[in-house]
UniProtKB/TrEMBL annotation:
GO terms for cellular component: extracellular region. SMART domains: DUF1943, LPD_N. It is found in: Secreted. Residues 1-15 form the signal peptide. GO terms for molecular function: lipid transporter activity; nutrient reservoir activity. InterPro entries: Lipid_transp_b-sht_shell, Lipovitellin_superhlx_dom, Vitellinogen_b-sht_N, Vitellinogen_open_b-sht, Vitellogenin/Apolipophorin, Vitellogenin_N. This is Vitellogenin domain-containing protein. Disulfide bonds join 188-214. Residues 30-711 form the Vitellogenin domain. SUPFAM superfamilies: Lipovitellin-phosvitin complex, beta-sheet shell regions, Lipovitellin-phosvitin complex, superhelical domain. Keywords: Disulfide bond, Glycoprotein, Secreted, Signal, Storage protein.
Amino acid sequence: MKFFIVLALLGAALATSHHSIERNIQETSFRAGREYRYLFNGQLSAGLPIPSTPQGITRLQTQVTLQLTDGNTARMQLQKIRFAVSQEETNSMKMLPFEKFEEVDNMDREHQQLLSMPVEFDYEHGLIGELRFTHGDQAWSENIKRAVVNMLQVNILKKEKHEGVEKSDSQEPTFSFTNVERTLEGECEVLYTVEESKKQEEQRWAKSINFDKCTRRPYIHHVQTPVCKDCKQTLEQDKMSSTVFNYNITGTPSNFLINSVELRSQHLFAPITEKHQLISAYTLNTLELIYAGEQKTEIKQVRSEQASDLIYNQESEWAEQQWAQTKRKNTSDRCHNGLRQRRDGREDVLFDGQQIEQGEAELEAAHTVARIVKVLRECNEEQLEKIYRHVVEHKNEKVAEQLRSIYFNTLTLAGTRVTIQQFADKVQDRKYITPLKASVAIKTLVDMRYPSLAIAEDVARLCESDVASSDELLRQSCWLTYGAIVNGVCGQTSRVFVQKNGVRMCPRDAKKKIVDKLIQQFESAQTRYEKVLALKTLANAGLDLAVYPLEKIVLNEQLDTTIRTQAIESFRRLRHQMPTKIQRVLMPVYLNRKQPQHIRMSALHQLMYTQPEWPVLSQIANQLRQERNQQVRAFTLSLFRSFANNESPCEQTFSSRVRSLLNNIPFSSEEIDRYESFYGKWSAYSRRHQSGVETSFASLFSTESVLPTEMMASLEGVLSGEWNQYFAQIGLVQNNMEKIIKKLLVSVQEKGLEQIVVRGKRATGSFQPAQFLTNLLEKLRITRRQPSEQEPHALVYIRHRDMDYAFLPIDAESIPEVVRSMIQRGRIEIGDIERVLAQGIHFSASNAAFIYETVRRIPTPMGLPVQFTSKMPTIASVRGQVTFELEPKSGKNFDGLRLRFKAEPRLASTHVLALTALCPIAQVGTKFLHQATFNTPIDTELIMNWEDKVVIRTIYNSPSEEKKIAMIQSRPVTFVRTITTSARQYPEPVEMTYMLPANQQFSQSLDREYPQIRVQGTWNRPTNQRVPQWVLDNSVEVFYNPSVEKYEAHLEFDLYNNYKMEKNYEKEFKKHSGKVYLESEVEYDDQEHQEEITKKFQWLQNEKVYQHIAKFELKPEIVKMQVEAVCSQDFHFCKTQIRGEELKATIQHVYPQTPRTVEELKEQKYRQLVVLGEVNYGENTLKININGQQSPEQKKWVKQIEQAPEHETLLEAARLDQYQAVCEFFFEHKPAQYFNRYWSLVQAYLRSQYPWTSRIESREESSRKNVVRALFNIEPRQRQTVNMTIETPMETTVLERFELPFQLPTAQIHYQPRNNRFE
């Protein structure tokens, strides 16, 4: 019934909208030689699917003439074509009258002619076959015609298979079926539902497209994130598409007539989070029969040898892609016609960007950079050269220099072959861009939108040029970028390019040529650095054909271990592309105990990231059970544990697999913690909020070195709605570096630091560090465990999105000449460099970059594509000066320094979310701009002295007047850009910033003043929860108005002073017995407590005790504080006192005796940890007493694990899982009110969130006033469940079995030896 009502309303709406059109229907079915005319109305909106929010809408209306000829062929022609746009309409869910829109009056004649060209197609039983378009028609025009033809496709023949289905007399005959069809939006499975009316001859058909079952979809997806199978299931569910047709048909399957069609389609994009509303492209098409009868004029026959199908034609996108990748001019004239439309206006757009570097960082500066990049992507060589000449010939040299820096950045950001070739040419000219700036700018190509082998070869020629050969930094950046570009073309990425006629972007021959080239570079390299550079380039390329030569390098034991380790790392870009092959290569390396330990651990690290299946994991587990090397075992266990507890959406399937395996492997945390080789992860992810972050850290040690062989830290997380796996990583690889450290320390010990680091040729001074270094050497015992012939070397590297971004070699071969010149006769003479630093170094830099850029383009049923763009253009500049002086300025030695840093950093960044309906006639859309600028001048002086104690003074000079230091703005905009072929300038869009109605938002005017800070602006909040905050118009400005000329911070450290324990120290602990305050039963009596405290402090009398003092003062008198700590050498006792102007705090703790074995622990009855604290602030006082001990449940747990290894049993048996606390407070009235208010909120939260596990009981008699008692019991096995009892003067709050998402740390009283490496 609802179906009939909807169709009736649709018919009424159509009748109302087109009352002026006469209808003359003389036919009841499609017949050859007859003419059928339809009125087509299309409406495409881009914006938020929320009522009352303006949308950018494109409106199309045309009369469609359809003529059927003999042989199941139909001809179609569009007539009376009208285009219109709107920026203000809000109701896009219904077809709006054409009169409500702003019609494009002067539509270009060429566009009219193209749209009027006829099309011929095969039409049999409602299905569309081949289409033949008029010669000279263009892709965008063809696609609009496809959109009309697409509405005529209905699989009427399949109905015959269901004619025999019996229905009851009271039911309307209905049935459904599925079929695979080629539609405008792809070749997908469609679902039909047919309902016939007994009273009428009409049949109502509904058709929907299942986009999850498509074998072919014409879309483009440019994203910078790596491939992640689990992420696609987790994050991409929000990017939904749906298309539904409703047909009104009369007749039979052999003789039928389509009377009307309605199409509704929606494509959703989740730019930030699932919680917030999605950006929507909504299409509403209607096709209504207005004439069926005699053929009045015959549509011309289409003579075309080339046939195509109904699927959207990506010729325009192909031409754009080919232009960017290869600059082929003959690929498509339409691309270059589009260039001519904007040719004269390009320079104006670019030169508007001069505001970027003139004075303040303007709010629109970053957005202007994005517009420059957009225009440069379509320029040819002549246009670019013209722009370049204008830039370099600017009259103001200061502005010209900064503008040139921005210009070269935008050339690489544009990333077309034309812009890259000009960039390479200008770098080789060495005139207006230095190699240093070129090495920074070329890094932008790592994430370029349209990589190609042609561009890669252009970059390779730059890498092999003389300018790159003479500058190692440029050479390294160039080759690493070359590898990244090759990976963008040939590797497995998330990008989706346009494919045409079976053209392969990266054929096998091309890959083999690249691999052979890089392997040849590796084999011919004379130094370790050059070999590492070749391997890292190969790693960035991520070519599958590189596996075989890399395998030979990994297995070649004659090579340097660092080279072999880098070869293992070179598999990382292939982990998801060919995991089985990598497992076959690296598994034997890990299982071979004769291999160096750090090579085995590196191989295992790469193996785990291939996410192996059960057979491989089982072999690793079996090796783990019999592993003798404790470093390898500890690293393997920590790696397993990290993956098992990982919350990253990219590894959930693999994490569950490892978790199951780990449950069957007996191990303890002590096995991991007692050794240095370690791998750890910390991750948090919210599916609901679509946000998350993951950090990881790894350290690889071996018995060959006291230093870590490799250390690594990485960061991952959600950015722009995508999980950025391997987002950033920094690492250090070293071999035999302790040889240099030992030599240096011994040299300093023998000669003195003043003989090693000298100001020119001065003699020795008074600073004698020999005794200090002697003690250090004795503690470290820096000696080789095994002899090594390898020269000392190290490697520091940085990776971004799993690409090697830069690396710094540290060895004798790579020391710069300027450093070599400072080392003379075994001494480091710093006199020359000291004079240079004292004169001051001036610096100035400007840079433009895209933090990220994501582009998705999909066709709509109206024949026009929509493009969703999410990007963050950013521009930054800094000017300043730094001076450095050693103090005293004259003398034989130095014991201080003075550093002056003065800079003016500026930053402007814009986060752009835009959805645009692309059409050569008019482009409309919606975009959300989130802009921020920062201008924070810095004038700081640092004075440091370490003669007797470390004293640091920092002076900050305030600006002389009020200054705007920050501005943040969000602005929702609808825009319209009308394009005509006769235009001789860049068509600027007409933008409209929209505001929600006053009754749908709360508006707040900001004008607040804080100490030296003033905030002003407007802040709007939506009343409707469906409307996200980020789509509202907001603006906030922050001003800094200094009231003080300068601030001075004074920090002083006086550490490790010998201290004699006073005999009355134990009195404080003796009087705090467990029976004084705590009502719960205490196992130890008061006498035993005092005896144990006395023994402990008698023992401390013979131990080394140190006093540490730290003082901090901030002038003018804002903060003044002193911290004094008296601690034993092992920190089993510590008393810390903090003194401020009104603050006085003391906290002290004492541990019981620390047993070394389980037997010693059993004999030790007293196991209490006592913590005392007292805080006084003004008239407020807080005293706290905490006793940590063991609960009966803990002792039962220890008995259950007595059969475990000794160290594991001791570790668990020495934990304190029960804590009793007493707080005695004396608060003034106002703080007491705050305390009661917050405690009431906590209780309300417990009642609502934990009604079954919490209870609050009133006390019949008030206990002691101003005292709060608490008892915490931690479950000893997993330490993630807590029972709490909190007694206040008026009530008791009990919370049972409270589960936490993390494991609670507990105090341990067992003896923890120092690392045996340093014993």
